[in-house]
Amino acid sequence: MAGKSRRKYRKISIFFVIFMCLGGLWISKKILDHNSPKVPTWLAVRLAERKRIHQEQCQKKPPDPHFIEQADFHRLIVIEDLKLVFCTIPKISGTTWRRVLYEAENNGTTIQGSPHRGELFSWLDRDYLPAERKKILDTYYKAMFVREPFARLLSAYMNKVIWSDEWGRKLTRHRNISNQELEENKFPMFVRHVLSFNHSRITMNQHWRSYEQICPCEVNYDFIGHFENLGEEAPQLLKVIGVDDYVTFPEYHPSTSRPFLLKSYSTLTREEIFKLGQFYDLDFKLFGYDFPGPLQEILDMKTALGEE
């Protein structure tokens, strides 16, 4: 009798363990589904890790009791029908995202004219009172995309200096410099120009302003996408917000500009590279990018050559 009782108890124990395991898996799945609607497991894991890093680093900042009233929200688009907040960052497919989000909000209607007109969207800072902002940030799905900081800065340089005579003139104003010297030193001059701002929001161009100054880290973002994975992650965001049946993200072609990036940054001194690393330190830390990242081989080369 005692043996039968032990076998019966063992069976019950095994059944209980299996039941608890299956129950735990079911509960975990329900939690995952609730927090990450329509997100496949591979992406849910990726987003959870990015969110963990982002929150962990943001908590190191001193708390701001006036965050809702005073934070810079001027690049946070609000789409009420989709309960979506999207923070647009220059040089991270910002123009494309505006076109796509306009279609998402307007049942697939293609935007006419420039997508950079402010009246096309509702904006968190301009169109909502502090109490409304808080409610939106507490209840809406919040998304953003970021990019490796050195690659983004180089993209801004190409857009605002190489392709813009106005910025080229600003860099050389009051300098007695030949055209040859200008071409050889234009990128270092641009970098020194950026470093001179010391993170001033008032005068610093948004194309090279730090991510945290554009998309405040106190916002608890649900979807932090990476530009490097835009082709696979952008369509997933459209699924999450429920518009993928009538909106598609344009085909994305990964950048092949690494040789150009290395060539450009090799014109900087080691000191300038490290100063840029300090300047964008929070961007690296908040979004899981390593410093010096793609510039490690430049630093190794300069070290081998004995450069300062």
From TrEMBL:
One of its GO terms (cellular component) is Golgi membrane. It is a single-pass type II membrane protein. GO terms for biological process: carbohydrate biosynthetic process. Keywords: Carbohydrate metabolism, Glycoprotein, Golgi apparatus, Membrane, Signal-anchor, Transferase, Transmembrane, Transmembrane helix. Its EC number is 2.8.2.-. One of its GO terms (molecular function) is sulfotransferase activity. The chain crosses the membrane at residues 12-28. It is found in: Golgi apparatus membrane. It is an enzyme of class 2 (transferase). Pfam families: Sulfotransfer_2 (PF03567). Belongs to the sulfotransferase 2 family. This is Carbohydrate sulfotransferase. The lineage of its organism: Eukaryota, Metazoa, Cnidaria, Anthozoa, Hexacorallia.
